[in-house]
Sequence to fold (432 residues):
Amino acid sequence: MRSYNQYCSMARALDLVGDRWTLLIVRELLTQGPCRFSDLRRGLPGIASNLLAQRLREMESAALIARHDEPAPVAATLITLTDRGQDLSGVVRELTRWGAPLMLDAPNNDEFRMHWFSLPLRYLCRDGTPDEPATTVRLGDLHDGCDIIAEHGRVDVRRCSSDRQPDTTVAAPPQVLVQLFTGQLSLRTAMTKGLVVDGSTAALERVLPGKGQTDV
Amino acid sequence: MRSYNQYCSMARALDLVGDRWTLLIVRELLTQGPCRFSDLRRGLPGIASNLLAQRLREMESAALIARHDEPAPVAATLITLTDRGQDLSGVVRELTRWGAPLMLDAPNNDEFRMHWFSLPLRYLCRDGTPDEPATTVRLGDLHDGCDIIAEHGRVDVRRCSSDRQPDTTVAAPPQVLVQLFTGQLSLRTAMTKGLVVDGSTAALERVLPGKGQTDV
DNA sequence: CTGGATCCGGGAAGATACTG
DNA sequence: CAGTATCTTCCCGGATCCAG
Fold:
């Protein structure tokens, strides 16, 4: 991106991350962990491959990301966030928070990836029954999903891991999921709209926002 | 900006504020308060007038800003942030925080406005002597500056106001100011590098970061 | 398959001049 | 003061192709 040529903290930040796609690449690496080029492409529908390559070069120059070869027999390169790149989580969090109300508008024909949803989930979820033993709720599947882990009154949202065995697995149309986790839809109503729960319903209810939900 | 067409909170936020200049316009309105078109131009060196006009139209459509005619005999239109626009302060804060280290690089021939500096100042300042009566330190002047108000252990940074009479007025080259408020330069050393203090030095020392400053 | 490079068309951004 | 008009430049998006 062209520099703004302003001696201003924010303008200089935008000189580095204000380019189209750059912050969404950070989103992918924050929610997915280390990624291959092709992982990023899948998580960034709409980006041209040449543009992704160019952005990655720029971000490497700016020391936001680093590349290192995968150790195994695999001939692939892993892309990771540097510490400086990780520090962008605050920016990502605030953009996510500000944009959350925009999710109430219908998806039209927007693309959807379940792991994108892990960002707003971080502050939409709560642990409703802190005294119960730890519970894991999986949204989506191993291929594209995230795990909500409730324990001791705290909620942690991470990317799916085959190491973790979920108590409950949930699938639903994107907007139903949004309405459910923003408390606009009760669990019962959501199930009439395509929500499918595989496992304990109680585990899901545990992480849903507080009582007093109002059906739309 | 073209939409990313992603059903993702952050992507939808960037659909609205990811355009070039948009967040800097928000910066201006947050730090300067209601602005005229020409005020914005002065605070956004480098922007073309047609582009500013276009961004303002888009931001008005997105309900980030509103326009209303100035009441008095003046024939001017004031541009203000809506509540939704104000809510971007979290995004602005995090971008400012992340970009702050970039200010340690020299300004080259970047433009500088003192009121831009009020953003990082908000977390660089402290009240070193909470028991003293309230103090106001002015950086720059009424035309382009900001006031640092220390009171009861809290620090508030606002835009300059003729209603307020500062105890001390400070002027300095931009980078000296940065080094001073990041604790890289002692007050004494800064004064050898172009810092000029008009009024009580103690007032300025009160809001500077904690002791143990190391000269560069 | 992974990780790109190359080419091209359209549109956004930049520069400048001008106006009610 | 608050923009519009016009022209140029360059970034982005889409398609295609290619080397390891």
Notes: Chain A has two domains: 9-87, 114-207. Chain A has a mean pLDDT of 94. Chain A has ten helices and seven strands. Residues 9-87 of chain A form a domain with the Arc Repressor Mutant, subunit A fold (CATH 1.10.10.10).
